[in-house]
Write a structure and sequence with these properties.
Shape: globular
Structural class: alpha+beta
Strand content: 5-15%
Strand order of the largest sheet: 2-3-1-4
Number of domains: 2
Number of helices: 12
Distance between the termini: 69 Å
Largest sheet: 4 strands, antiparallel
Radius of gyration: 21 Å
Helix content: 55-70%
Length: about 350
């Protein structure tokens, strides 16, 4: 049978991480020879041997595999309403969330804003938000793929435990390595300003993307080089005992903008322990949601209220981003401290 090439619209795709997950999933389908996603147009060009099936039948068949990760294929473009009314619910939730942070800070339990550094409590909370965002679809997909692979081998709890242990330990060690590398640069106040400002901008873009109303911002989101991400995702297909451990390590290199912003901050610390603890607390923040996903296969943020959830998370991330940008300006004396927490 002659090879066929079809273009489909991908529904449920939010970012470049989702695009990578879609490509990786389709590449594993026996009838598919190649799959190339355009994240901006939300389309995928699929080539393979599909017999005498119509384009609609092919889309339906491939959707059976993609639906496990929250995506589907269609011959029709996805019409996404911006649903501005969801902000009436998301806004108050985000305000309460930020207010609680400020109150906790005033008790001395956490330090929300610091002109020279980011507190580990804040890093942990950013990890929580990251683990619940749509941009963690790739890591969630890796967790589910790993679970399915070992379920076929009759294994269950041990691989999941090894995955999370490998993830948390490797984030500390690799974060420490990044911090050590940063020490070689001996950053002055201007260098700290650049890195701090960059962290804020990366987070700002992610927060805007989570709102899902300004779709043009998605093209500015930073992602890990595709060849690294593909290798990291490929680990989930291994059935060796060490595979879940390696998969946990591999998540450090997956295209999550939150992870990358924390990596930039770890670099700015110029210290093994500070860089390591930054990534450790970030990984610890992502643990609860990923643990639920791996141990019970429950998807996060897929319910009817996911629009409100993502908008709430987006508003919180934007606030964090603004704080970071303002703090970086304080470091170089461009402005006076605004928040005297």
């Amino acid at each position: 049978m002659e090879k066929q090439t079809h273009t489909f619209y991908v529904h449920g795709m939010h970012c470049k991480s989702c695009a990578l997950a879609t490509e990786h999933t389709l590449d594993d389908v026996a009838s598919v020879e190649s799959a190339k996603v355009n994240p901006h147009k939300k389309t995928v060009v699929v080539s393979g041997n599909f017999g005498n099936k119509t384009k609609e039948e092919i889309a339906k068949e491939l959707t059976k595999t993609l639906s496990k990760k929250g995506y589907s294929l269609s011959i029709d473009e996805e019409i996404i309403g911006k649903k501005w009314e969801e902000f009436w619910i998301a806004g108050p939730f985000a305000a309460v969330f930020i207010l609680l942070f400020v109150l906790l800070q005033k008790t001395g339990l956490i330090n929300l804003v610091d002109a020279s550094s980011m507190n580990y409590g804040t890093v942990f909370l950013i990890g929580v938000v990251a683990s619940l965002s749509s941009c963690m679809a790739v890591v969630g997909g890796l967790v589910l793929s790993l679970s399915a692979t070992f379920a076929k081998e009759g294994k269950s709890l041990k691989p999941q435990a090894l995955f999370h242990a490998g993830r948390i330990v490797s984030f500390f060690l690799l974060g420490g390595l990044i911090g050590t590398i940063g020490s070689a640069f001996q950053l002055n106040s201007f260098g700290v300003f650049i890195l701090g400002f960059l962290v804020g901008v990366v987070m700002l873009i992610m927060g805007i993307n989570l709102l899902d109303v300004f779709h043009g911002a998605k093209r500015f989101q930073v992602v890990m080089p595709k060849f690294l991400s593909r290798h990291a995702l490929g680990v989930s297909n291994m059935t060796h005992t060490a595979a879940p451990l390696l998969a946990g390590v591999a998540t450090f290199f997956l295209p999550c903008g939150f992870t990358q912003s924390m990596q930039i901050y770890a670099l700015s610390t110029g210290n093994f322990m500070k860089g390591g603890l930054t990534m450790f607390f970030f990984a610890l923040g992502t643990f609860p949601a990923l643990a639920v996903l791996s141990f019970s296969s429950v998807g996060v943020g897929q319910g009817k209220q996911k629009g409100v959830f993502f908008k709430t998370a987006g508003l919180v991330v934007i606030v964090f981003a603004v704080f970071n940008i303002l703090n970086s300006l304080v470091v170089i004396g461009a402005i006076k401290p605004i928040f005297n927490f």
